[in-house]
Write a structure and sequence with these properties.
Radius of gyration of chain A: 18 Å
Number of strands of chain A: 10
Number of helices of chain A: 9
Shape of chain B: elongated
Distance between the termini of chain B: 24 Å
Helix content of chain B: over 70%
Structural class of chain A: alpha/beta
Number of strands of chain B: 0
Largest interface: A-B, 34 and 25 residues
Shape of chain A: globular
Structural class of chain B: mainly alpha
Distance between the termini of chain A: 37 Å
Oligomer: heterodimer
Chain lengths: ~260, ~250
């Protein structure tokens, strides 16, 4: 373990990744503090999902063997000590990873135990998580029979049930109706108080309503990073650009 | 962790109707076969009694029954192994396992023991049926034990192969066809090879089952099953690691 301050929960340095001959991610570095919600913004195909897969250990970054890059979760090296580091991560992939034939309770208990929670602690965590995600009424239902919105909530529930330090959400509100989006946004804001959250999206409104800080990706590179306020004021001597204008200007700037 | 994964595998299996259907169908076929063999034995029993050293009920009924069960398992195992990893990939649940604090070997062994436990339950009806004969006659317990051990080892080798093939693809159907083709191919190559020294005999799991079927506990054959299973489990672990490397 390195002597990282406890307030930095996630540090990624120089991540790159190619699939075959195609370079998808070019040397990305990220840092995330406790109680912070970071939005990863970018067009489709900018490499957001690939980056999140690397941060959660689903995909190894290139050059991991010869120390060209590193990922640390709460000061624990994800590439050297994956088991310890991964117990501190909660991950919701693009498609929620649900066993459709199980019921909600069984599935969430499985997810909690999988992350190394003690059986005695699981019952309480289950009740608390279900209450947070509004799943109390569907505990005994089979996941495959739930609506898309509920399935998405179960997906978020499995990512937070073990109280991870870092929560990684890949497009958490995709496919939900406006009322559900509002609930999920409130939930993510609430999670951001005690945990670190990193989420990817291509919706600006999402970032504006949930995130403290934003990183914009384009073609596998981070091209802009700053707080929401800084982004709104980006390049604004004349000061009358909207957030959306600034986003378009940033992503379409010549590299 | 391995136990947790194995139990999850079992829970998922038992929540699907097709599992219960397979259980019932296999039980029905085996019971039918058992009764047919028993009837044939009872018909020839008077003639057998005139022989100097007549074969008993265990070797005329139990041994063929176990042999049939072995062939049926060869057809049936791919239907179960196909889901193991291919379906997890397709449903994206595999990323839940990959992002959890689990090593590749834990994932593989959890799935292996989960399915092996289920298939053990699937074939446990056979010795139970045979032991009903103990009400009327003496049974050869050694022969039964050798068959049970042999069948378990054989099942383990089928599951290991199926697990590896399932780890190669995202399509469960391809995993099923691939496993079935490999198993049937090995079996056909074995029975088609005329010469006793043909290398095909050493490669075929069903060939190594024959000595167990005859009541022999051959350590060479047992070693083959252990090596065969271990090889494919190791290959599956490798494949999962490559999953992280190449996406």
């Amino acid at each position: 373990m390195s002597a990282a301050t406890p307030d930095i929960t996630l540090t990624a340095r120089n991540l790159s990744r190619h699939f075959g001959g195609r370079q998808v991610i070019h040397g990305i570095s990220l840092e995330l503090g406790r109680g912070e919600v970071l939005g990863l913004l970018g067009h489709n195909g900018a490499g957001k999902s690939t980056t999140l897969q690397m941060l959660t250990g689903c995909l190894l970054p290139n050059g991991a063997e010869n120390n060209e890059c590193s990922i640390e979760i709460c000061g624990i090296d994800l590439l050297r000590h994956p088991a310890q580091a991964k117990a501190r991560i909660g991950y919701l992939p693009e498609m929620p990873p649900l066993y459709r034939e199980l019921n909600v309770d069984d599935y969430l208990i499985f997810a909690a135990r999988l992350r190394g929670m003690k059986p005695a602690a699981v019952t309480e965590a289950l009740a608390q998580t279900k209450q947070r995600c509004g799943l109390e009424s569907v505990g005994k239902k089979i996941i495959g029979t739930l609506s898309k919105g509920y399935q998405q909530r179960v997906g978020i529930a499995q990512a937070i049930i073990h109280q991870p330090a870092v929560i990684v959400l890949d497009e958490p509100t995709v496919g939900l109706d406006p009322a559900q989006i509002r609930e999920i946004r409130a939930l993510i804001r609430e999670l951001g108080d005690a945990h670190s959250v990193i989420l990817s999206t291509h919706l600006l409104g999402e970032v504006e309503s949930m995130c403290d800080r934003v990183e914009i990706m384009r073609e596998g590179k981070l091209i802009y990073g700053g707080t929401i306020a800084a982004m709104a004021g980006h390049g604004g001597e004349n000061g009358n650009f909207s957030l959306e204008d600034n986003y378009i200007r940033i992503t379409e700037m010549e590299l | 962790m391995i136990r947790l994964l194995a139990l999850r595998e079992l829970r998922s299996l038992f929540s699907m109707p097709s599992t219960w259907f397979a259980l019932a169908a296999l039980q029905f076929i085996l019971a039918w076969f058992f009764l047919a063999m028993l009837e044939a034995f009872l018909a020839v029993q008077p003639q057998l009694a005139q022989l100097a050293n007549p074969p008993g009920v265990t070797s005329t009924v139990a041994a063929p029954l176990f042999n049939t069960a072995a062939l049926l398992l060869m057809m049936l195992t791919p239907m179960f192994t196909m889901r193991l990893i291919a379906e997890e990939r397709r449903n994206q649940t595999f990323s839940l396992l990959l992002s959890s604090p689990l090593a590749g070997w834990q994932i593989v062994l959890g799935k292996f023991f989960g399915l092996l436990g289920f298939l053990t339950l699937l074939v446990s009806g056979i010795p139970l049926m045979l032991y009903t004969l103990a009400l009327g006659t003496a049974l050869d317990h050694g022969l039964l034990l050798a068959n049970v051990i042999g069948l378990l080892l054989l099942t383990a080798s089928f599951v290991a192969l199926g697990l590896y093939v399932s780890a190669l693809t995202t399509q469960p159907a391809i995993a099923a066809v691939g496993t079935l083709a490999t198993l049937v191919g090995l079996w056909l190559a074995d029975i088609a090879a005329a010469s006793a020294e043909s290398p095909w005999h050493t490669l075929s799991p069903l060939h190594h089952f024959q000595s167990f079927n005859a009541g022999l506990l051959d350590s060479g054959d047992a070693a083959f099953f252990v090596l065969f299973s271990a090889t494919f489990l190791l290959l599956a672990v490798r494949r999962i690691h490559n999953n992280r490397l190449y996406g």
